[in-house]
Specification:
Elements: H1 2-15, H2 23-32, H3 52-56, H4 65-84, H5 88-109, H6 116-134, H7 139-148, H8 150-156
Helix pairs in contact: 4-5, 4-6, 5-6
């Protein structure tokens, strides 16, 4: 942690205090460069051993409702595969990634600097993550029901079946 803070302070010194670089971002960059960094917060990806790290890299995306849906369906399929193979580590890695997504989406949903429409969308996505975490076996069916609900159509103005 001391080394990570020292790197953070040096970056601020070199690029200036107006640029905000988080410890999570620095740790993510160092991990991608092959360093073993033991740091987690709501913004950094959970530490994953191989082969899970490679398989799950980039699997969590939620720029909008469509990318969140694709991401959750992909993660759900991977989770089912790991569960059917009795791979508890793999299943827990997927669970950790979805939990991280929920925390990130909730954080954006409560950020007053984010536009109201985007906050509403991120709250919806956080709810999707929550439902998956509580009932992964029912998630796919629940999502289809949610997307066909009048409330969903009213909130997000979706006219067709795909989000």
């Amino acid at each position: 942690m001391a080394d990570l803070r020292a790197a953070h302070d040096e970056l601020r010194r070199q690029i200036g205090p107006e640029y905000r670089t988080s410890l999570g971002y620095i740790s993510s960059i160092l991990r991608e460069a092959g360093y073993d960094v033991r740091y987690e917060d709501r913004y950094s990806d959970p530490v994953m051993p191989e082969p899970y790290a490679t398989r799950l890299k980039g699997a969590l995306e939620f720029h909008d409702l469509a990318s969140a849906e694709l991401s959750l369906l992909r993660l759900d399929a991977i989770h089912r595969e790991y569960s059917s193979a009795a791979d508890r580590v793999g299943a827990s890695m997927v669970h950790a990634l979805v939990k991280k997504g929920k925390l990130r989406a909730q954080s954006i949903a409560t950020n007053p600097r984010v536009q109201a429409r985007k906050r509403q969308e991120k709250q919806e996505i956080a709810n999707w993550f929550r439902v998956w975490l509580e009932t992964p076996d029912l998630f796919v069916e629940w999502l289809e029901l949610r997307k066909s609900s009048q409330e969903f159509h009213r909130l997000f103005g979706v006219a067709d079946e795909t989000v």
